[in-house]
Write a structure and sequence with these properties.
Layout lengths: L8 E5 L4 H12 L3 E6 L10 E3 L5 H15 L4 E4 L14 H28 L3 E6 L12 H21 L4 E8 L8 H4 L5 H10 L9 H12 L10 E4 L17
Parallel strand pairs: 1-2, 1-4, 2-3, 4-5, 5-6, 6-7
Helix pairs in contact: 1-7, 2-3, 3-4
Bound molecules: NADPH dihydro-nicotinamide-adenine-dinucleotide phosphate (NDP).
NADPH dihydro-nicotinamide-adenine-dinucleotide phosphate binds next to α1.
């Protein structure tokens, strides 16, 4: 296949579903050879897949070595795997906190740490981390999630600084509300899903929540040569939700 990522070898963590699956599809459409790494096989049976637990260093090194041996190297890493839970501070154990950090922050660190050698051997590469709008502002009960995603944003900047000299760019995207299983528990806590989605849409200047492909298209750009002078950036993808300030609802303009 020809395309702007033709001949590139890409790996996407958490690529079995949701945003990760959309990223895999868009990278493949752009011509890359894509391997998803996830705890279980993808919803799309046509996608190349290998088991991966991003919290486990042996799993990470085994995954990277296997892909590099098959593809001759790795040019693009998308750190997408992530978890989210809503818990009050008092209702949250140290183990809960550690689990969030292990998947959302240790995972991207381990993947970057072990992929660098592969990328440098090919003269460079691109790392794209999936951060979150909640690394910038957050909903109640999200102490661990928000902290982990702010950490991802900081890791992104630090990797860009350290890896620029070996030709590796590192950027992040900060998605707002994207309709995936990650948000399912919240949406289904109300009996009328359509009403919840409509109300969520009203929070966005564009009038609706995001789709996984809205994130994937920006990730492909960050992975491609078209963004060759962009590194150390966190790009918000939220339909303008964060740009709009709240006003008192009694003023009828909120
Ligand atoms: P999903 O829950 O739909 O997908 C996450 C994927 O990551 C799942 O396939 C999951 O596997 C996998 N995963 C979880 N833990 C691990 C692990 N230890 N090793 C490997 N894979 C793992 O979520 P989304 O697609 O919505 O989220 C993708 C990313 O986008 C996450 O980092 C999330 O924080 C971020 N994000 C999402 C937003 C949203 O509104 N949806 C907004 C902002 C950011 P399994 O299902 O088996 O656990």
């Amino acid at each position: 296949m020809t395309g702007r990522l033709s001949g590139k070898s890409a790996v996407v963590t958490g690529g079995a579903q949701g945003i990760g699956l959309a990223i895999c599809r868009r990278l493949a459409e752009a011509g890359a050879h894509v391997v998803a790494g996830d705890l279980r096989s993808p919803q799309d049976g046509n996608l190349a897949w290998k088991p991966l637990d991003v919290t486990d260093e042996d799993s990470v090194t085994g995954f990277i070595e296997a892909v590099a041996a098959e593809q001759g190297g790795i040019d693009i890493l998308v750190n997408n795997a992530g978890i989210m839970f809503e818990r009050s501070l008092a209702g949250q154990s140290a183990n809960d906190w550690d689990r969030m950090m292990a998947v959302n922050l240790r995972g991207p660190f381990l993947m970057a740490r072990h992929v660098v050698e592969q990328m440098a051997a090919r003269g460079g590469g691109a790392i794209v981390n999936i951060g979150s709008l909640e690394g910038i502002a957050c909903n109640p009960g999200h102490t661990a999630y928000a902290a982990s995603k702010a950490g991802v944003h900081g890791l992104t900047v630090a990797l860009a600084v350290d890896l620029g000299p070996v030709g590796i760019r590192c950027n992040a995207v900060a998605p707002g509300w994207i309709d995936t299983d990650l948000n399912r528990v919240y949406v289904e806590s109300h009996p009328d899903r359509d009403l919840v989605m409509a109300e969520l849409g009203r929070l966005h200047p564009v009038g609706h929540v995001g789709d996984p492909l809205d994130v994937a298209d920006v990730v492909v750009w960050l992975a491609s040569e078209e963004s060759r002078f962009v590194t150390g950036q966190v790009i918000t993808i939220d339909g303008g939700r964060h740009a709009r300030l709240s006003l008192p609802s009694i003023m009828n303009r909120a």
